[in-house]
User: What shape does this take?
Amino acid sequence: MKVDAQADLSAPSADREQLPRVRALSRVARLFRLLCVQIGVFLVIICLLDSFAAIALQVTRAFAPVTSDDFSAGRRFADGYHGAVWTADYYDELGRMRMDWHPYTYWLVAPLSGRYLNIGTNGLRATLRDESRKANCRRRARIFMLGGSTIFGEGVRDGYTIPSQLQKILDESGYCAEVTNFGQEGYVSSQELLFLQEQLRNGNVPDLVIFYDGINDSESALLQGEAGVTYDEFARKKEFDLQNSFEAERRWRIYEIAFVTFAMHSSLGECAKAILDALSPANFRFLKGELVKKGLSPDSATKDLKRLGYDVVRIYLGNHAMAEALAQKFGYQELFYWQPTLFQKNHRTPYEVAAERADDMFRPVIEVVYPQMSRIAAQNGVNDLSEIFRDVSQPTFIDHAHVDEDANTIIAKRLSHDVLKWLEHRAANPKEPPQAG
Assistant: This one.
């Protein structure tokens, strides 16, 4: 001990001065190693919990009863399909469908080749037509159909979309016409108008344009709390903030958004959303795999719904007026239709009752917007089809918005009455701009 003490005392003064610093660095190193071990253990526990959550989700989904609230699994058993065997493969194809970014309108459906669902490289779904008639066409009528997923044809095969069914009727009537399906998943009328403007700008000018709207304009307003915006507008704002976070004090937002997104889509996050949905079914529900809040706040629901309803109709009619101005400028005609929903159907099948219950969150805004539009539709040049299935007793809807193939045929026949009148006038007056309506 004396030797050690003497050795220590005999050490150079500079070394003795460094000892406290060395000991402090050693303590920091030990604390850092301990922190790393704790973080590692924490991550291992989180990974194990996430793995258990993934297994629990798979088991729960495997044994859970199939309902219309399940976006992909439940609808394939809709009674409007009458037990058809093709629905399983069709919904598998629908599940593979993705969106590509598109300027101004935000997205277009990505190309897809399937047995029942085919989208071209231009983002447009295939419309089946009698190609043999092209050779005898001297004055082909080009008809564009714009709308959301109901015109796109969600839930039906290529040959049974409204555009394909209208094309079939026109082919059988002997008219030379080409119907193009410009319907896009989730589009509101403002996006359709922008999509049409792009076609006109590029020289793709039709002879007749058909707009088919109502549901998306209403529901996007409910979900966003504001009329005239697209679905999931909040996500677009997040994306903009992410790409424009160049200031040093805002760069943390990139990591925050990444972490929250990862957490919400992990198995633990999915379990948390499922638990929240189960504990509070009156306030939350799953919409295409995402947990969304139902409706507006109770304190302002009545006032806000009235305002939203008025704004939805006002903005739609504003788009209607701009579309008419474009038609006059570019020399084509237009037809406007307000689409039906399950909430207007009086005689619902047991499946439709379940579908109505699953999508009941949209009822309040539909019940405000649709009566307003019905009162003023005719005087504003809008054909109101909202009650076309009011007294129909057979299966019609596969959810609150989309109808089965037989119902699409009924809608196409109704549209064909106006289109055939326009074609007759066009044939009788080849030099006169025909009037649609």
